[in-house]
Design brief:
Oligomer: single chain
Largest sheet: none
Distance between the termini: 46 Å
Radius of gyration: 22 Å
Strand content: under 5%
Length: 423
């Protein structure tokens, strides 16, 4: 009963639109005070929440992605991919998803991916006769690849919370990330075949293709350097993010795309997101400490194992809960609230924590494109100057593809686990 009251109280605060960080932290402090636990532990928990070397990767990746956004790198990336696949059926749609996948390998952020590629792709696709709702939905969904294809900020946070190897999580995200990108491309090509209003791209000469490729090459090299340094054991994710940030600044200045004014804008934009993330992390740490003292994770774990004996039913229940919560919470809040509660039950059920991390991230990806609080919907709504309904309608088929992927992931767990087990 105590567990139900506490979780119900948290849900009530969130429904009343209390900021997530304050809802978590405030409720945590209240719970500690009611039980007579020393509140001196609260400042220690707040400091300890962000005093982590692994978390340095979060602001570094955000800074890097915003520098690349302000430097117009997405335009080069999209132009290069478009030059090679633009003549395919639905070529611009294919170019959009491939560009999202490539930029995901740099940014680690769905919002940055959607905004960067969306700024370039939306006007180009609309000019070629693509249905506006489809274009907006495709960009919202394509942006979600930014939190699955490594480096991924949610996977970094999941690794910090659960103490699971972050490089292993990154490796596990490659298979499902590429699979989702492929499914998005197939759907986009099939959609284009049925839409007679789409105009074909004009033929592009080989010289133009190579010119566009050379302009995008520094970005591709940057992505390869970041991922390669992590997997080769040369750098940790945090060190790799810092190196990538420095290279991004140098690269954009050398290319003449960056000014000190743009750098200031990129820094402020990053700070807004970084402060939000770290405040939520700090609030979640206090709340997590309080519910641990109240034995809530153990109670939830015991309840689940007593009433759900099958791992399949457990995963189904978790999936349904996350889908419902995704209507009210944004992705990072879901992760920081739910993982500490659910993680103890994984070991009892014999579920691989690396596999569960990928399963969890795909579900919170789905939450990014489902109203009313799907963050990517709002990003694309702003970039495309559209209505929320228009974006959500276009994103719905892509959300179904994501849900189908989670089902496939359960029956074919090697989709996520083959690479980390063999490399």
């Amino acid at each position: 009963m105590e567990s139900v009251l506490i979780l119900g109280g948290l849900l009530s605060l969130l429904i009343l639109r209390v900021p997530v960080a304050f809802a978590l932290g405030g409720l945590g402090i209240l719970l500690l005070w009611l039980k007579g636990f020393p509140l001196v532990a609260v400042p220690q928990r707040l400091f300890g929440a962000v005093d982590s070397f692994e978390l340095i990767a979060v602001p570094m990746f955000l800074l890097m992605s915003n520098v690349l956004l302000k430097g117009g790198v997405g335009k080069d990336l999209f132009a290069a991919v478009q030059a090679w696949v633009g003549r395919w059926p639905g070529g611009l749609g294919v170019a959009t998803i491939k560009s999202c996948a490539l930029f995901s390998a740099i940014s680690g952020s769905s919002v940055a991916t959607a905004a960067t590629i969306g700024t370039v792709a939306i006007p180009e696709m609309e000019k070629r006769g693509y249905n506006r709702s489809f274009v907006l939905g495709q960009l919202a969904a394509g942006g979600t690849l930014g939190i699955l294809i490594p480096p991924s900020i949610p996977l970094i946070l999941y690794g910090v919370i659960t103490e699971v190897s972050i490089p292993s999580l990154f490796l596990a995200g490659i298979g499902p990330g590429l699979f989702l990108a492929t499914m998005f491309i197939i759907y986009s090509m099939l959609y284009a075949r049925g839409d007679k209003g789409i105009q074909k791209m004009p033929r592009i000469s080989w010289a133009e293709r190579w010119r566009a490729t050379l302009l995008a090459l520094p970005t591709v090299i940057l992505a390869g350097a970041i991922i390669g340094s992590i997997y080769a054991g040369i750098a940790t994710p945090s060190e790799s993010a810092g190196i990538g940030f420095v290279i991004a600044i140098i690269m954009t200045f050398v290319m003449g795309r960056m000014t000190f004014e743009k750098l200031r804008e990129a820094t402020y934009a990053s700070l807004n997101t970084i402060v939000m993330i770290f405040m939520i992390i700090a609030g979640a740490k206090v709340f997590s400490y309080a519910i641990t003292l109240y034995l809530i994770p153990q109670s939830v774990s015991t309840f689940l194992t007593d009433h759900i004996s099958s791992p399949t039913l457990f995963i189904l229940a978790v999936g349904l809960v996350l889908l419902v919560i995704g209507f009210f919470l944004e992705a990072l809040s879901m992760l920081l609230i739910m993982v500490p509660v659910l993680f103890p039950a994984l070991q009892t059920m014999g579920i691989d924590p690396i596999w569960f991390g990928i399963f969890f991230v795909i579900l919170i990806e789905t939450a990014l494109i489902t109203p009313p609080v799907g963050l990517n919907l709002f990003v694309i709504q702003a970039v495309g100057k559209a209505s929320l309904e228009e974006v959500a309608k276009g994103a719905f088929p892509f959300a179904l593809i994501m849900l189908a992927t989670t089902v496939l992931l359960w029956f074919w767990q090697d989709l996520a686990l083959y690479i980390p087990r063999h490399f």
